[in-house]
Amino acid sequence: MNTLESIQDFKGTYPKQLWSLFFTEMWERFCFYGNRGMLVIFMTDILLFKEGDAQLKYGAIQAFVYAFTFIGGLFADKILGFQKSLLGGGTLMILGSTILGIDAANYFFYGICLIIVGTGFFKPNISTMVGELYKPGDVRRDAGFSLFYAGINIGALLGGGLCVYVGKSYSWNLAFLLSGIFMAIGLLNFLLTRKNLGPIGLVPNVVNPGTIKRNQNLVYAGTLLSLPLVYIMIKNTAYTDIFMYIIGPLTLIFLLFEMKKLDGAQIKQLFAALIFIFLSIVFWAFFEQSGGSLSLVARDLLSNDLGPIQIDPNVVNNSANSLFVILLSTAIGGLWIYLKKKNIEPNYYQKFGFAFVFLGLAFYIFYALRFYLNAEGMASMWVFTLAYLVISVGELFLSPIGLSLMTKLSPKHLWGIMMGMWFLASAYGQYFAGILGAGMASPDENASLATRLDGYTQGYLQLAIYAFITGGIVIVASRWLKGLMEAESGPEA
């Protein structure tokens, strides 16, 4: 079996194990983004929810998906190990997608519950295993996470575009089933290649195997018992509110307890990581309008003309971001290399600040949709797509860096927890995204196209202003924030 030392002493830019994790994650993201892109449209068209209610439920579903990543990361760190968590989570996702594939209309929330819990056990742990492929201080780590992030977006591109097309054009059941089939392909890929990972992701604390086995069984039992609770909370978003009020403070309390064991430099670095986490909450609350309000704008208020071709606007909404990320990721990476050679590369916080500037510009372009209408009063697909190009640049300034920083700024024994907190921040972002989107929706379901477009675009203008302000504050404070990151690392960092 490969040792950790032999894996980390790889030659070249990428370790071979990264490709196994790349393809596993790619097909899991096909499943996730395929399902995500269908949620609001399915709930309004088939389940007949009002737009505001559908967006609140969308926010709740997505919030629980990412909240469970923290729980999954915690259990993986302490009890299950990353590999077992990944396998169990993937199995639940396949089962949930299969249930939706059989009868999505009658069993929607049952299938979604399984996908929520399954993603929680899968998502943070594969990202953490990527971090373990590198020694502390290995300068190739960022390149590895950038490649990994490309795999995420290839899966999102394929799943987000194909599933919503199949659902709207042929069958929603078939679309949900399709996401499960590709999740099964990803899990099979992991099973066939996991031996190459050696000790990475195996069960921790094997000193007392009996205790580990007992604790694992308790986790499995607790997972099954949690499903009815998740079902209740996503059906009634008032319970979601209570959960989100509780989980964040409890998480911070837990982290503060763990921080008591660290030295001063490690505490400063964790504090820097927490600031990144807070900023990401704000970013994702705006960005994730893509799965909520923007999916409704695409369905009802956009023309389907994109140059000489006719295309479903929801396909564009669900896939444009991923396509642009794939096309631009190498260029953005090359830009950082060029600026570094010139000794003018922005620091991490400056990059986060610029991410908000691009985010603000994108939402200003979404606001401008009201000025670009065809004879039927439908907004321009070209302007809509341009906004996604800009927002994708902002994402590339933030998201790949964030994944890498959670392992870079954290002691090794807290990697899983901090990766989980990074995704928990996304949970809060998704939660607030649903609230923001619901606030933009017209209370009158029979409102004219012009009224609905005015409501959504006016909301996007407000988001643009807030994004610009946040970006400016972060850029101004970046030098002080950089000092926290560069505190001398502790022995384990």
Task: Briefly characterize the structure.
This protein is mainly alpha-helical. The chain contains 16 helices and 2 strands. It has a two-stranded antiparallel sheet with strand order 1-2.
How would you portray this structure in words?
The chain is mainly alpha-helical and 493 residues long. It has a single domain, classed as Up-down Bundle (Growth Hormone, Chain: A), CATH 1.20.1250.20. It is built from 16 helices and 2 strands. It has helices at residues 4-8, 16-45, 51-80, 82-132, 141-169, 172-193, 209-235, 237-259, 264-287, 293-301, 313-341, 348-367, 381-408, 415-440, 449-476, 478-485, and strands spanning 305-306, 309-310. It has a two-stranded antiparallel ribbon. The two termini are 26 Å apart. Residues 489-493 have low confidence and may be disordered.
Characteristics of this structure?
493 residues; Growth Hormone, Chain: A; two-stranded antiparallel sheet; 2 strands; disordered C terminus
Major sheet characteristics: 2 strands, antiparallel
Question: Tally of extended strands?
Answer: 2
Number of domains: 1
Structural class determined from secondary elements? mainly alpha
By CATH's scheme, which homologous superfamily applies? Answer: MFS general substrate transporter like domains
Proportion of beta-strand residues: under 5%
- Uncertain residue segments: 489-493
Q: How are helices and strands ordered from N to C?
A: HHHHHHHHHHEEHHHHHH
Write down the Rg: 22 Å
